[in-house]
Amino acid sequence: MSPAADAGALLRVEALEIAFRVRGGDVLATRGVSFEVRQGETLGLVGESGSGKSVLCRALLRLLPSPPAQIRGGRVLFDGVDLLALPEARMREIRGTDIAMVFQNPMTSLSPVWPIGDQVTEGLRIHRGLSKSAARDRGVELLRAIGIPDAARRYDDHPSQWSGGMLQRAVIAMAMACGPRLLLADEPTTALDVTIQEQILALLADLQAKNGMAMVLVSHDIGVVAETCDRIAVMYAGTLVETGPAAEVLGNPRHPYTLGLMRSSPRMDEHATRLQPIPGQPPDLARPAPGCPFVERCTFARDACRHESVRLREVAPGHASACLFPESVV
Amino acid sequence: MWIFRFVGLRLLQAIPVLLGITLVAFLAIHLVPGDPVRIMLQGRASDAAVAEINARLGLDQPLLVQYGRFVGRAVTGDLGTSIIQRAPVSKIVTERLIPSSFLLAYATLLSVLLAVPLAVWAAARRDRFADHVIRIAGTVSFAMPSFWIGLILILGFGLTLKWFPIAGFGQGFWGHVRHLFLPALTIALFLAPLLIQSLRAAMLDAMTAEHVEVARAKGLGERRILFKYVLRAALIPVVTILAVNIGWMVSGSVIVESVFSVAGLGMLLVHAVSTRDYPVIQGLTLVFALMVIGVNLLADVACALIDRRTRNA
Ligand SMILES: Nc1ncnc2c1ncn2[C@@H]1O[C@H](COP(=O)(O)OP(=O)(O)OP(=O)(O)O)[C@@H](O)[C@H]1O
Ligand code: SF4
Ligand SMILES: [Mg+2]
Questions:
Q1: What is the domain extent for residue B157?
Q2: In this structure, is residue B66 part of a structural domain?
């Protein structure tokens, strides 16, 4: 029995450090990120554009191109096995079977030159060795299950014949094909209309409940994760600044950045009248400064924030914040 | 079947093009300054002979009538009579059409067989040793003039090694294959570098597409991704480039034809121009146009087979 399985964690990321080697220095895309995803739960990963959410998801599946990406340190334990130490061939078996991913833009997620159905079932044929006809039967079932009407006939359609919402459904079906235990959904609704967004989120929640899989739901809108997630991890400039149960974090935010995200989310505010975007820009990831990375934009900042190093510290059971003065956040 | 509708539609679209080209071919005789018949006969003929030829060619009729007749006859395959060879143009052209088309198809096949694996290799090993070697070799081979490559091949494979004949068209299918190998290779050594370069670029471009990363996230192997996703998407722009170049080669293969003494359309064209055999020039213009239209039609069909989106266009 592996140690992580004892702890009930399906995925456990420890002090993950990723840099991009670019001209003019290294961009530190994640700095010492640690978190857990338990069996069957949904973790909401939120943060502004450029905070490193996509880099983190790709790193979990080892999809980052190297060069320029470099894993500088840390471990990614899935079921107690460090994915970062696996040979590529073994990693390939895990991709699409144990861990699957859904990407932001459904319009570009499928190859334009192949029938949708064949792409949806490709994983089944590669990983599970299904015959063409068996894969087809299963593919039609999958498409039907994610709400494509007339699935048998539309199996052979090409991506250009489907709308964005339908394509995202197909991409989700594709990710679900081999029954993954962990689904990474990287802003699965950002490219879609508002009404479609709701449907896709509902679909994901439904599939998750039925299949008992765990999910990391990425969004830059804290309102999106508020509705569907068990726990929340807030990411800022390559670090996690607050983690905890969703109700806890949203009801009692202990980091000014989390508060800022809540005040700037149209979904968190029924009337959307008091929307306040967070002023300022995130720091340059190529030149990390000592102290709290949020200091330039923080309305609670004090002198200590500039020099003292910050790290996630428990403020309540299971609830952690990287703010030096979590009690002052109101 | 979509393919019948698709080809039918393309052929309908070709009709105005064909009309335009018949007009140009027709005007070949009428745009030359002076009396074309006298030019054809190079001033050696009597007035009676000129009048006789004018009447035979119908050049004494009004222009519109002449054009109507030209089109009417061309539709039935009658392209007039060669002044120099005194034989039907259609017969002369058809005789030359076979070696030329054979050479063209052969050269295309060789180019593709050379270019696709090399381009895939170069793209997969981008900026590494193999990529650089392929690029440099391609540039050298592209930069060498065709007659020079042809002569080197004749010297090497023909005269020294004696693997292949160095001239003529040969007898029977396999005879043609053997005889035309060196000329086809000469064209391929010019065409393949173009294809390699564009296919490599298109593949590198296709590799950055998001669906490639999605495919990787599905757990597909690099080889499968390279062939199924990247190559397939990259082929479409390259088919178009290939078609343009083959179209150009239809009349541009004359150098290769003369180096290897292949009695093809290119040689016929040079001969017809130098002897001012206008009916033959007229006929050739039409045949070249038909071939270019045919090549483009094939390219469109190929694209439609690769990517279904283009089928409805
Ligand atoms: N290939 C790369 N080369 C250099 N830097 C990169 C590369 N990919 C990402 N980065 C850097 O990593 C940081 C994090 O990017 P990432 O795409 O993970 O952000 P994100 O949180 O997903 O944002 P978004 O909401 O826009 O999707 C960015 O600041 C970006 O500059
Ligand atoms: S540590 Fe200081 S600057 Fe950083 S979030 Fe807390 S109060 Fe603001
Ligand atoms: Mg992103």
A1: 99-312
A2: no
Note whether B192 and B114 are within 8 A (CB): yes
Neighbours of A40 (CB within 10 A): 17
**CATH code (residue B241):** 1.10.3720.10
List the shell of residues around ion ligand 3, using CB closer than 5 Å: A 54
pLDDT tens digits, A154-188: 999 989 899 998 999 999 999 999 999 999 999 99
Let me know if residue B87 belongs to a domain.
no
Which residues 244-303 of B are in CB contact (within 8 Å) with A? none
The total domain count for chain B is: 1
Establish whether residue A49 lines the binding site of ligand 1, counting it when its CB lies within 6 angstroms of any ligand atom. yes
Q: What is the pTM of this model?
A: 0.80
Does any domain span residue B62?
no
Tell me which residue has tokens 């086809």: B184
Burial of B285 (0-12, 13-18, 19+ CB in 10 A): buried
Query: What Cα–Cα distance (Å) separates residue A182 from each residue in A1, A99, A130, A303?
Result: 19, 5, 22, 42
Sequence-separated (6 or more) residues with CB below 8 Å from residue B220: A92, A96, A122, A126, B228
A282 ligand 1 Cβ < 6 A = no
Work out which ligand 1 atom sits closest to the CA atom of A50: 19
Closest partner residue to A96 (CB to CB) among B210, B217, B307 is B217
**Stretch (H or E) spanning A100:** strand A99-102
pLDDT tens by residue, B156-190: 988 888 898 888 888 889 989 999 999 999 999 98
Residue with tokens 């996690």: A240
Hey, what domains does chain A have and what are their CATH numbers?
11-98+180-328 (3.40.50.300)
